[in-house]
Amino acid sequence: MSTSEQPPSGPRTPTSLSPSRASDFMQCPLLYRFRVIDRLPEKPSEAATRGTLVHAVLERLFDDPAVERTAPRAKAMIPGQWDRLLGTRPELGELFAEDAEGERLTRWLGEAEQLVERWFTLEDPTRLEPAERELFVETELESGLRLRGVIDRVDVAPTGEVRIVDYKTGKAPRPEYSEGALFQMKFYALVIWRLKGVLPRRLQLVYLGSGDVLTYDPAEADLLRVERKLLALWEAIRLATESGEWRPRPTKLCGWCDHRAVCPEFGGTPPVYPLEIVSARPPESGESGQGRMDPAEPAP
Questions:
Q1: Which three-class secondary structure state does DSSP give residue 120?
Q2: Which DSSP category does 212 fall into?
Q3: What is the 3-state composition of the chain as percent helix, strand, coil, each rounded to the nearest 5?
Q4: Measuring CA to CA, which residue among 9, 32, 7 is closest to residue 233?
């Protein structure tokens, strides 16, 4: 989804499932409802917007010839990409509205530079020729469940092996939480497998915040388990959509949530549930991609 696209006003029925929205429901069903059905507004954050900026630089760097893909070149792209982002999302300027001297903005851009520079210690773009960048993928399973999302980078070896790469501007999770981090990548692998009949050889998460690279080589059994999990998740979403029972699930992540004022866990009242809309057709989950400013989780 282009970060310049904004959903229309008013409630909507879910229509497909993406990694971000699946994670939302697993984190808190009520959060899923607020984002997908009620579409409540959320404030942009410096961390998420910085992620969008860094992703834009790393994507567009590959437009240049291999010999020109250097760290100084990439860092020099940051101001122009920030201007471009402001052109499509002028409301992001509010992040620094009270920064009259420009000190916070300068520091923030410097942090983006550090993330971009660290990438060059983890991968060598002069030796990479991605098959796809910011690839939108969508497929429909036999059950009718539609899966969709945007993959940061797809590499294809001369032998035909596929590697899916995702950039993260936060820090790598502790080992006990790595499975949650890999969920998104297995989701993409499943979509590619069902869409093209090709089992990705490697899934790779590049953590620019900590300088770590997490890799995983999936097997068919892994992706079949993910598919079963998504079908069960979708059934839970369907039941919640029909019944209007969207239960909050309080965790430490509530501290980053924009919707505490309407959350019953914090004394709020959710919007009136639009039963007349959700009963009009079978529920699915709506999202046309994964914008980098998606605030599904705070930066680590």
A1: helix
A2: E
A3: 50, 15, 35
A4: 32
Smallest CA-to-CA distance from 123 within 165, 91, 68, 173 is with: 165
Query: 134 with 59: CB under 8 angstroms?
Result: yes
Structure token digits, residue 143: 């059950």
The one-character DSSP state at 136 is E
Angle at 52 between CA 129 and CA 211, to 5 degrees: 65
Output the average pLDDT for the chain: 88
Whether pTM exceeds 0.70:
yes
What tokens appear for 103 in the block?
Answer: 């000190």
Helix pair angle (220-243, 178-196), 10° resolution: 100
> What b/e string do you get for 135-162 counting C-beta neighbours within 10 Å, with b at 16 or more?
bebebebeeebbbbbbbbbbbeeeeeeb
**Do residues 2 and 134 touch, judged by C-beta distance below 8 A?**
no
Contacts by 7-12, CB closer than 8 A, 24 or more apart: 7/39, 9/39, 10/39, 11/37, 11/38, 11/39, 11/271, 11/274, 11/277, 11/278, 12/36, 12/37, 12/39, 12/277, 12/286
Burial class (CB within 10 angstroms; exposed 0-12, middle 13-18, buried 19+) of 208: buried
Reply yes or no on whether the pLDDT at 284 is more than 50. no
SS3 string, 256-292, reads HCCCHHHCHHHCCCCCCCCHHHHCCCCCCECCCCCCC
Structure token pair of residue 285? 């989950």
Task: Report whether pLDDT(141) > 70.
Answer: yes
Model confidence pLDDT, tens digit, residues 172-227? 998 888 888 899 999 999 999 999 999 999 999 999 999 999 999 999 999 999 99
pLDDT of residue 25: 97
